[in-house]
TrEMBL record:
Keywords: Viral genome packaging, Viral release from host cell. This is Terminase small subunit. Residues 1-30 are annotated as: Disordered. Pfam families: Terminase_2. PANTHER family: TERMINASE SMALL SUBUNIT (PTHR41328:SF2), TERMINASE SMALL SUBUNIT-RELATED (PTHR41328). It comes from the Bacteria. Coiled coil: none annotated. GO terms for biological process: chromosome organization. The keyword DNA damage does not apply. The keyword Endoplasmic reticulum does not apply. Gene3D superfamilies: Terminase, small subunit, N-terminal DNA-binding domain, HTH motif (1.10.10.1400).
């Protein structure tokens, strides 16, 4: 029996990978078919909630030996690796990334998302309320670095403190004060607040 040479697989595409179910197991009994069965078993085990016997049957093993095969397959390094990859992929697919969050908030802001309004005659759908749209706009601005009054306040406070330290150093140099005299002078100065600076 002659085998066809494998064709090279195309370069990976930067998209969210969709976990596809491998095709049904082949009955040749070769190592390739065993690897295929292991991948199919991994997929079925991951998607059926962890039932090794059912996964073995779905992977093409005999129902009479499925329980034993399932237990043995769970200790196979290839199956363990496939299960870890499937779990990681599921975790990545279930977590919204920053772009998804931006898109969802933008859809709310633009009124593209339907909101359900209860009325005496039943439920009506319509654009989100103005408050939700304003909140979405605010969240988008926060995510993009807008609305940072606290950061600005801390920056001003830091600049004032740096200015005061530099001023004290100049006073120390001109008056030739010792470090103790400088510390006494600094402690005698009132602590400046932003209200006093404004």
């Amino acid at each position: 029996m002659t085998r066809k040479p494998k064709t090279p697989s195309p370069a990976p595409v930067e998209k969210k990978a969709v976990v596809k179910k491998p095709s049904a197991a082949k009955q040749n009994g070769s190592r390739i078919d065993l690897a295929h069965r292991e991948r199919l078993f991994s997929y079925e085990f991951h998607h059926n909630g962890g039932n090794a016997t059912q996964a073995a049957i779905q992977a093409g093993y005999s129902p009479r030996s499925a329980q034993t095969q399932g237990s043995e397959l769970l200790s196979s390094p290839m199956v363990i690796t496939h299960l870890q990859n499937l779990s990681a992929q599921s975790a990545r697919d279930s977590i919204a990334d920053a772009i998804e969050v931006h898109e969802a908030l933008t859809d709310i802001l633009r009124g593209k998302v339907d909101h359900i309004y209860p009325t005496k005659s039943g439920l009506l759908t319509g654009p989100p309320p103005t408050g939700d749209r304003i909140k979405a706009a605010s969240e988008l601005q926060k995510m993009r670095g807008g609305y940072a009054p606290v950061k600005v306040e801390h920056q001003v406070q830091n600049h004032v403190q740096i200015w005061m330290l530099q001023s004290l150093q100049v006073i120390q140099q001109r008056l030739k004060l010792s470090q103790q005299e400088l510390d006494a002078l600094a402690s005698a100065l009132p602590a400046l607040t932003l209200d006093q600076v404004k």
